[in-house]
Specification:
The protein is built from 11 helices and 14 strands. With 401 residues, the chain is of the alpha/beta class. Helix 3 packs across helix 4. The protein is globular and about 55 Å long.
Length: 401
């Protein structure tokens, strides 16, 4: 098990509404400050099904689900999906992210951390920063605590493979209910933010996949809004065994719920690398962007676990080169095929920037990333929104390096 942990050291980091009770200190319509909401009852979601919010229920953790919202000065809206790893079998679901020593693998965030508050984050959450392209926008912050890329609707039983710290029972259940949580938050959004002019659906890491997968539901809820989608550090490189393997393992463990009018009736037929392409093609009026560093250590780490246990994966023996070559080939192919999609590939191996000061510091692709995002949002007249990449970022090294 110890050899797996080396890849984690860089960090992971038409709607009928039922009666709904909320615990909140204020309504976002009052404006200016973040408010925390804790949904307590089920709702009938945009898909016509009943949904109740919950975190994973990993033994010893709090299942209570909460989210945040604030009213901005403009009529525009950011919907942000939080990241936090993933789990999909007994190995990965035994080991949550819990601030343990490096020798213990850690794969997913199992609960909403106590004291979490988006007001404390940097990047697009800096309302006072004049360089922030969404500083005046209303925002909804969707936490992530279900290990399923915000797409699951399943309760799965897993088996303790031997956690060295937590006294787990021999078997335990995980609530992969990210899609259910999103449906509950979307119900709130539709009532509190009725007619935004522009909507940015964004997410980091696992949340980037959540933004990609759930953007069609948001577009359907706000059909007159100008929609943009931004996936931050979620350039899918997976293996067929992970995407298409046995039920209860890999991606099938989540019972992914994807909008059928965009993704079709069988979401398991869409590979991880194709998810963003299919979404962009199915949202032709939206502008869809992807950010990644050239050698994202966290994405490489997850791919390494998939390749080891759900292989064979790519042919390169060098894991970092294998991931990089597949990732940059994919972003270029998608850009060639789609008129509403562009990418920004940055130098280095750091993971995510929408919540960090790196959002303002990144410029290795020849243009500041914050300006590229502004162009995505249509805020910079006369400047084209185009593919951007550092001078060496698209180079594909030979596999034996």
């Amino acid at each position: 098990m110890a050899h797996l942990n080396s890849v984690w050291k860089a960090g992971l980091t038409c709607c009928i509404t039922a009666t709904l009770s909320w615990s909140a200190s204020a309504d976002p319509s009052t404006g200016g400050t973040w408010q925390k909401y804790t949904p307590t009852n089920a709702v009938r979601g945009a898909d016509g099904q009943s949904h109740r919010a919950t975190c994973s229920g990993y033994p010893g953790t709090d299942k209570t689900y909460s989210f945040w919202a604030k009213k901005g000065k403009s009529d525009n809206l950011v919907v942000y999906f939080e990241g936090g790893g993933a789990c999909w079998d007994s190995l990965t679901c035994t080991f949550p992210i819990a601030g343990l020593p490096d020798a213990v693998p850690q794969f997913f965030v199992p609960a909403v951390p106590a004291g979490a508050n988006p007001a404390e984050y940097s990047g697009i959450f800096e309302a006072a920063n004049p360089d922030n392209p969404v500083k005046d926008w209303s925002m909804v912050y969707i936490p992530y605590c279900t290990g399923d890329l915000h797409t699951g609707s399943a309760t799965q039983t897993y088996y303790n493979v031997g956690h060295p710290v937590f006294p787990l029972p021999s078997s335990f259940q995980i609530e992969h209910r990210g899609f259910d949580n999103f449906m509950v938050v979307l119900d709130f959004m539709r009532r509190k933010f009725r007619e935004p002019e522009k909507v940015l659906v964004a997410g980091s890491s696992a949340g980037g996949y959540g933004a990609t997968a759930n953007a069609p539901w948001i577009q359907r809820s706000y059909p007159d809004a100008k929609l943009s989608v931004l996936a931050d550090a979620s350039q899918g490189v997976t293996t067929p065994g992970f995407d298409l393997g046995n039920p209860g393992q890999g991606r099938k463990s989540w019972n992914m719920q994807l909008a059928p009018w965009v993704f079709g009736s069988d979401p398991s037929r869409i590979s991880g690398p194709d998810l963003l392409r299919v979404a962009a093609k199915g949202l032709p009026r939206a502008k869809v962007g992807q950010f990644t560093t050239a050698y994202d250590t966290v994405q490489i780490g997850f791919y390494g676990v998939m390749k080891a246990y759900y292989g064979p994966g790519g042919s390169c023996s060098n894991l970092g080169i294998d991931w990089h070559n597949q990732a940059v080939s994919k972003v270029q192919a998608d850009s060639d095929a789609l008129s509403n999609y562009h990418y920004y590939v940055a130098d280095g191996g750091y993971h995510t920037n929408l919540r960090s000061p790196q959002f303002y510091a990144e410029s290795s692709a020849g243009t500041p990333y914050r300006d590229w995002v502004s162009a995505l949002l249509g805020q910079r007249q006369g400047r084209l929104w185009v593919d951007a990449f550092c001078p060496t970022c698209l180079y594909q090294p030979p596999c034996n390096q």
